[in-house]
Amino acid sequence: MPRTVDLDDRRRIVGEAAWRVLVREGPTEVSVRKVAAEAGLPPSSLRYTFPTQASVRDAAVELLVSRLRERVDRAATAPGGRDAARAVLLELLPLDDERRAEMEVTVAFAALALTDPSLRTAHEQTHTAVRDVCALALAHLDARDDGGDGGAAGAPGTPGPAGVDVELTHAVVDGLALHLLAQAVSTDASWAVTALDTHLGLLALRP
Predict the structure, then answer these.
(1) Residues 96 and 193 in one domain
(2) What's the CA gap between 25 and 44, in Å, rounded?
(3) How many Cβ atoms sit within 10 Å of the Cβ of residue 80?
């Protein structure tokens, strides 16, 4: 048992160090050497658990996804219906330093994955995590939970209402997040919250 705890603790320390390097220098700069220095550990001590740059990068992505899910879980305790859906989706918008850093990393992975196959898995992890949050929000909004043709509720490519609503919400959130990243940090972001509220209002009116 102590060994397992040690390994878990090591993954947390390395994941947090990798996250800091990732945010500060970008996905392509997350190397074993840099992360070891950031964590205050000799590189040789990382190479058993994290032998490659990709494995260190994966630890950073796992931390990103776990942080997002923790915040979403807290937000989901809001009263049901539109309030809960709104609280959950707001966790995907870069409205503070933490969420902005996460979104910058997510966008960087998406852009780099177009030309670097080694980053494809990391991009797919973050993409799927965001889509899952959108699906959770719509479940709170009492969106239909059938695929219209007997398919899985909200599954990618599902032609039924649930799948369409999830994909639409994912696209709306991604679009709002990109626009927020493009504007200065000090710029009023209330327009994005208003846009999200409008989207949820339209979804609530659907039969």
Answers:
(1) yes
(2) 22
(3) 12
Q: Per residue in 155-186, pLDDT tens?
A: 444 333 468 899 999 999 999 999 999 998 88
Question: 177 and 97, same structural domain?
Answer: yes
What residue numbers bound the domain in which 20 lies? Answer: 1-53
pTM, rounded to two decimals: 0.78
Angle at 66 between CA 177 and CA 36, to 5 degrees: 100
Asked whether 27 and 112 are in contact (CB, 8 A), the reply is yes
Q: What whole-number distance in Å separates Cα of residue 153 and Cα of residue 203?
A: 16
pLDDT tens readout for residues 143-157: 444 333 333 344 444
45 Cβ neighbours under 8 A, 6+ residues apart? 36
Query: What is the three-class DSSP state of 78?
Result: coil
